[in-house]
Design brief:
four-stranded mixed β-sheet, 37% helix, binds adenosine monophosphate
Length: 302
């Protein structure tokens, strides 16, 4: 079973009250692929520039992430810089430099075209759609993430792409911005008219909420004493969520609920250290232990 992802592979500059890094491997597709690879093989579609080192590539390759769809182009890799507030809840984007992504025209390797599970990670909606259209048969499950940058600049293209996906997975501010509704349940109804039948809203330290025609399901964020860097938490959540669903090959209500927990587990590990540092050393046994901890955290009787 394999899972296809398209999205940014980037260098990030990050600042939080816990420290600062000038240039570290990041990008939505990178976090997603690393998180999802704990569950299933992952095929990655993206572009990097000449500054992308052999070491960065080896890091992904050694984890068993398939890079046949990772193109190298003349120019620089996507660059993003962000700074977090004291409580880590607010973030300002200091720079977004698309670089090689500005002219990227993805061509899917033949073996990627039969993907059954597809994740359109955060990147230009036109690129997301191009990748989805190259998949031969409608995937069992296609999910999409996006952010304010694309909602503001490429709204029409985003709406067109949304027609073709089953799950929209975004944060609360983006849900409100896209739907023009403050209330998340009304926002969900609005979003269902755009195409997706499942909405997953990532709410940072407040956990995550899933809405579909059956109703609402919520998971908390795992309580951490000292989160360091929220970058990539949403993408790691998505990796845990989609990776789990692809591994069990079903998406009934019980499986979706467990996927929400695995998403929360991967998101919580990701924020424990800067950038990808915590995911680099994470073990499958730690994922299982934290998932059990989640069950304890939310268990009650009436
Ligand atoms: P998250 O914290 O889940 O929003 O994801 C952060 C990651 O998204 C960083 O590693 C960035 O490189 C990447 N990113 C930031 N802005 C964009 C954008 N406009 N398009 C695609 N990826 C982005």
């Amino acid at each position: 079973m394999s899972l296809l992802v398209v999205g940014s592979v980037a260098f990030d500059a990050l600042e939080s009250p816990y420290g600062k890094v000038d240039r570290t491997l990041g990008g939505a597709a990178t976090y997603f692929a690393v998180a999802a690879r704990f569950f299933v093989p992952v095929n990655l579609v993206a572009v990097v520039g000449e500054d992308f080192s052999e070491k960065d590539e080896q890091f992904l390759r050694r984890r068993g992430i398939n890079l046949d769809g990772l193109e190298r182009a003349p120019g620089k890799t996507f660059f993003w810089a962000g700074r977090y507030s004291q409580d880590l809840n607010e973030r300002v984007t200091l720079a977004t430099e698309l670089n090689v992504f500005a002219d990227f025209n993805p061509r899917l390797p033949e073996k990627y075209r039969s993907a059954e599970y597809v994740f359109l990670a955060n990147i230009a909606p036109g690129l997301q759609r191009s990748v989805l259209h190259q998949v031969k048969v409608r995937p069992r499950l296609a999910a999409l993430d996006t952010m304010n940058y694309w909602i503001e600049r490429t709204n029409a293209e985003l709406r067109e792409t949304l027609h073709h996906v089953d799950i929209l997975m975004i944060n609360d501010a983006e849900t409100r911005q896209l739907s023009n509704e403050h209330n998340l349940l009304l926002a969900a109804r609005h979003i269902f008219r755009m195409g997706p039948s499942i909405l997953v809203v990532k709410r940072g330290e407040h956990g995550a909420m899933m809405v579909d025609k059956r109703g609402v399901f919520s998971v908390p964020a795992f309580p951490l004493e000292e989160p360091h860097d929220p970058t990539g938490a949403g993408d790691s959540f998505a990796g845990g969520f989609m990776g789990y669903l692809a591994s069990v090959r079903r998406h009934d209500d019980a499986a979706l609920r467990r996927a929400m927990v695995y998403g929360s587990v991967l998101g919580s590990f990701s924020v424990e250290r800067f950038g990808l540092d915590r995911l680099r050393t994470l073990k499958r046994s730690e994922i299982n232990a934290r998932a059990r901890h989640f069950a304890k955290l939310t268990r009650f009787t009436l």
